[in-house]
Design goal:
By secondary structure, the protein is an alpha/beta fold. The protein has two domains: about 5-180 and about 360-384, Rossmann fold (3-Layer(aba) Sandwich), CATH 3.40.50; about 185-355, Rossmann fold. It is built from 16 helices and 14 strands. Helix 1 crosses helix 15 and helix 8 packs across helix 13. The protein is globular and about 65 Å long.
Amino acid sequence: MSALRIVRLANFVTSASGGLRTALSELGRGYLAAGHEPVLVVPGDAPGDDLTPQGRVITLPGPLLPATGGYRVLAGRSRLRALLEELAPDRLEVCDRTTLRWTGEWARRHRIPAVMVSHETADGVLRTWGVPRAFAGGVADRLNRRSAWSYARIVCTTEWAEREFVRIGARNVVRAPLGVDLARCRPDRRSTALRARYAEGADVLLLLCSRLSVEKRPGMALDALAALRAGGVRGTLVVAGDGPLRGALARRARAAGLPVRFLGHVFDRESLADLQAAVDVCVAPGPAETFGLSALEALACGTPVVASASSALPEVIGDAGAAAVDTPEAFAAEVREVLSRPEPDRRSAARARAALFGWDRAVRAFLSAHDAPVRASGHPEVAA
């Protein structure tokens, strides 16, 4: 089979995006290295059409979503439909389970195999926005039945994310884990000097690396820090990330007298890896996370993770951290439990777990979902 043009559509991506932006970039690079032609279409504030290391990236002007901290969407079906017909994809990949669901039916009519990537669970997101569990489940089931019918395949990154499709009897669901840059994220980046600079004399240095928005529950990290300190543990927290809740969280930390440093979005990936390696524990309180790339990066840097037991992260981190029920006291207790393990053991376990998730494996899984071959001329890691 010759090279395939794989057109990818994604919303909710900005220059300060985290996991989704990373996944799109790494998969695009992998598709390109495997001999295919990836084309990514995203919303932005101005039109653009660029050749990049991840392939062609087309930017369409899209409206801002209120109270999201800069997220935009691909609006205007006629414009996007015209672009798709111009691009004439061999495969379609969609990373948005809401406003872009109509593209599955478009692909069916044009006999183009299409996949929807489940980067979050529908019922999980609805619950984080306060929708009652029973009602959220019913709405999610209706949405998911329509998606499973519209798309040739639904790609889930974890078994946890797959469950809501299994629940409705969908038979076109495949598993494709994401990955981590094991060359950039390494335990030997750990710097005691950097740790001391951020810890400022504290015994425990925590990191929250997350978008500061409702569905990520960043306030839990502050509550867990407060619980640790109430229990006699001198801890401090560094927050790497931005979002609509940043101002409220900063005011809350000041009012409570909590030692929290807000760095905003860390654009330099090398600096972020240095930080992830320097801290003692990374906390990931988001209850609707389906994979958690920042948590996986922390593991690759040798840093254990304490994650929400309601999310998919316990499946990802395995024994290289701990799962906490969604209370501050539980998070604080699990942080103490992780830190009770000998440091060499917990750091080597974290790295060993992350080593199972190279991007080469992820690219092969996604290409398999597309029934797309890995050509021998591709990147050695992908073609292996």
